[in-house]
Amino acid sequence: xxxxxxxxxxxxxTRREIILEARNVVRKYxxxxxxxxxxxxxxxxxxxxxxxxxxxxxSTLMRILAGAESATSGxxxxxxxxxxxxxTRDAVKHGLAMVHQELSxxxxxxxxxxxxxxxxLSRFGVVSEGEQSARSAEALGKLGSETSACVLAGALPLGQxxxxxxxxxxxxxxxxxxxxxPTSALSSAECDRLFTVLRELKQQGxxxxxxxxxxxxxxxxxxxxxxxxxGLVAGEGRRSDVxxxxxxxxxxxxxxxxxxxxxxxxxxxxxxxxxDSLTAMxxxxxxxxxxxxxxARPGQILGIYGLLGSGRTELLEMLAxxxxxxxxxxxxxxxxxxxxxxxxxxxxxxxxVPEDRIRDALVPDRSIRENIxxxxxxxxxxxxxxxxxxxxxxxxxxxxxxIKANDLERPVSSLSGGNQQKVVLAxxxxxxxxxxxxxxxxxxxxxxxxxxxxxILRGLASRGLSIVFASxxxxxxxxxxxxxxxxxxxxxxDEFDASAASEDRLFSAASGLRTHERENG
Amino acid sequence: MNxxxxxxxxxxxxxxxxAGKSIATLLLKLRSVLALALLVxxxxxxxxxxxxxxxxxxxxxxxxxxALLAVGTSFVILAGGIDLSVxxxxxxxxxxxxxxxxxGIVFASGDPHFLPIWLVILLSLxxxxxxxxxxGLLVTRLSIAPFIATLGTLYVGRGVAxxxxxxxxxxxxxxxxxxxxxxxxxxxxxxxxxxxxPVWFMAIITLIAWVLAAKSPFGRHVYAVGGNxxxxxxxxxxxxxxxxxxxxxxxxxxxLVGLVIASQLEAAHPATGQSFELNxxxxxxxGGTSLMGxxxxxxxxxxxxxxxxxxxxxxxxxxxxxxWQMVIKGIVIILAVAVDQLQNRVQLRLAGGR
Lengths: 521, 354
Hints:
- The structure holds two protein chains of two kinds.
- By secondary structure, chain A is of the alpha/beta class.
- Chain A is built from 19 helices and 22 strands.
- In chain A, helix 5 (129-142) packs across helix 6 and helix 14 crosses helix 15.
- By secondary structure, chain B is mostly helical.
- Chain B contains 14 helices and four strands.
- In chain B, helix 1 runs antiparallel to helix 14 (322-352), helix 3 (53-78) runs parallel beside helix 8 (197-215) and helix 4 crosses helix 11 (239-265).
- The longest helix of chain B has 31 residues, at 322-352.
- Chain A binds chain B through residues 320-322, 341-343, 345-347, 352, 354, 359-367, 370, 373-375, 377-378, 380-385, 406-407, 409-410, 414, 427, 431, and chain B through 1-3, 13-15, 211, 215-217, 220-221, 223-224, 227-228, 230-238, 294-295, 351.
């Protein structure tokens, strides 16, 4: 229905080169501004690449384009006409569909039910199974997939599920497809399949918006490039004008590199932690960690540069006792150990600040005080918690970490992202760790709090704490780490001192060049 | 909500919120106490016999049954679970006690051994605790949804209670001096300092539960597990152990209720406690505890039990029919939860409008 309408409007005017345009889009959240006036153009039948570090505003912009969020100000033009989407369904009606970063396939339904979930084709109130599976098969066929439309989606491997998601968009006759990090969970063979599919879709008249951290695939696939940095467009160009250096320069910003030289590590003794050939298998038989060996010293900050799906979270959770390895050994203070539970690890002096504080760390309804003391509440009394001792220690930590809260009895959910992160950090410090693990230490944290957290971590390291953090932000790695390891597809592909951590080296290691060589060779 | 632990909310927010706002939130927080006070005022104005010592003594005895169950299930619900088996467990523990008193324990060959009453009581409580542990194991080790697991033990427990006596009642639990097992009726009928024993049990169990919930590391762990299980696990909290403990506590409280009832009747009836679990859950919910877990208090559950008890007894005294009583109870529960949601929204608005 809609594509025809689009086509008539397009033929009546001259067929526009730009199918969708965002003009001066601003999006404010309480405390932060994610987009500060962004212009973004989607060219017809092209792969439009959007690049930027975490927190640059990519996902926010895409959610606005797909109708999942609305802009604080600014406008959207579809085929030159101003539009406003009420919600994602409305956007789908206009031909825009988003393939989400977290796959949203319903595992309990068949492929064709998934494709038509929420928009079932029905006649007299009864779902027309036949028509649904026919159209599903057609969409899957276009994608070169041999998946049958009647198998359960849950039985499919991840790559196939991704294809089902794209088929869902095609079956709704979407003309603009937004893909947010589609390859983060895919194997390299699955990635290749996806790229072939995307190129074919382009031929068939679909315009694609593509977000990814993997530079190599962007350079292979992209036609138009837009770089976001801190909520602003930092650069825009055609494929012919763009190369690796161009992207890296705009992503990281040449001029603004404050305090890049990392402080020199305190001269430390032997290794506090050494891991040897740690290997773990994922659910789909893919290696999550592939013979990872690393060591960490007191007073040293080790930065692990890894993108989503690189295995960084799994590695840290393993060290914190929240996950077990299939093979390999962990030595802590020179002794071989395997942490069966998190409390074992905490008792040994290892604490983890998880990646997603809302999901994995905070108890939102409880007070700031209780959230800080949660992991070490037994230290204030085994049978009765001494409120006096507890409040005293919590107040000390809150002051030390500069947690900005009027009242530590207020629910932790009332704090800003940066202060919530400090609460999680304070909780870890309360257990008196000698090894502190942090997964994306400043995710969703504003610039000011970010600098404070860096300051805190440097201070802790200078007091002899060993710190291991994982991050997908190059700048963070460069600013904070004394030593850098690059994790890609579960394996350490490069390791060097911070002084050698150029953007180029980080990027080429992480973006898959070497892993491709390794896999083929 | 953490200060509300005793059902006696303390200070309103010390922030700069205007007096009107803080009074509004305070009233919302105190609503179950207010509702209770209103009910008492209402019933005492309607019938002169309501506010008499005799009636209050009977009333608190009734309330004690619901309160013990509600306080027990509170932990389960705070940790994000639900316990439907408490009524059956009450029946089962009463029947266990009845069997031990009437038949004793028969070893491989020989005469039955009759146990002293304290041991009978202890064993019956252990049976309740064991069913609770079973619930906890089903929920944690076999990952069965709490609703289903405890629904299963509800049926199994009731069935076993009926099997023990083949559906018959054990009458005459007064015991036999020759068997050295007299004294069971005193367990639920005795008075100490003029207060009936069930009320003592209620007071002691509530106190213990309140200390556990509000003052002990275990309580913190329960709230954490209910509020964000994954976060609790990553804090080194043994989530399985916490959950199993909550079910075991709930089972033991239910067993105590079964013993009190059997003792008061001097008979153990296998159908004792039918649909008690619904009263218990209703009391917990009336007390402001969220069925999603992580939010609520022991004191709230106690007040909730009183609201249910006062409502039931008061309506009986007014001569309201049993059918209308059910309708009214249902409406009160729905109202309570509706007000709970209203409070959440008001608090959100106040927090946002700071």
